[in-house]
Structure formats: structure tokens, C-alpha cells
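anyone seen this seq b4? input:
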Amino acid sequence: MEEVQKSIAHQIGGIQNDALRFGLQGVKSDILGSHPLQSSQESANRINEAMKKQCLVNLYGTAFPLKMDLDRQILSRFQRPPGVIPSSMLGLDAYTGRLDDFGFEDYLNDPRESETLRPLDLHHGMEVLLGLSKGPVCPSFM
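predicted toks r here
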């Protein structure tokens, strides 16, 4: 006689629209970016980066940009566990040249220090990093 495996198909925390963990979300925030110029700035950054890669290919050959991409991937993996102190990604910022950029967080406030930021749930953040749960590692603004 064959044994039949009975299991209930489910996902642990698979629903990202969990109102108890992530709060109520609006449809407008899912469709639109945070600012109208954000999409144009991102596309300009992508075009600028593609031009830099093409210049590196022309100067040093095809292996150099590939090595730079591998280094960028390695440096983007080094992060602190979710908690009170966020990852600064200093090595990646130094490698990509973002230390020289003067962003809005330099003359305004850091968004993580905002009054509307929801407190971080350390346990949920570790569950997401270990693959036990789905959803954002830390909740965004209210």
C-alpha cells in the first residue's frame, strides 16, 4: 500500500500586503514614484553608466568592465544585519564614485531619521534575509 503525503501548500509570510506588518498601502504609491523627476534622473544615470562602460571597453578591452561589475557585485553584498544601525555601503560608494555626489540627504535630513519612518522589526528582517519570509526587509515610511 502506497503512503500518500499530505501537505498544505502555503508560504510563510508570502503576502506582501500584510496590513499588520507593513501598514495600509495605497494604489497611487505603487504606481507613481516618489517624485516626478525620479524616473528621468534614473534613466539619465543608466545612460551615463552605459556611456562610461563603453568608454572603458574602448580604452581597456572587454574584460575590464566585466571585472568592475564583479567587484561591484561583491561590494554590494557586504551589509550589516537588519537593526538599529543601517548599512552605509562605504566600499561600494567609494568604488562607484558616489562619495563625490552631493545628494539631498547631505543638506536635508536622512530619510531614515524621519518621524514618519516605521520602527524596524529585527526578527522579520532576518526572516527575509534567510529566505523564510517574503516582503521588504524593513518597512518604509507611513
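The chain is about 50% helix and 0% strand. The chain has a mean pLDDT of 76. kinda curious what u guys think
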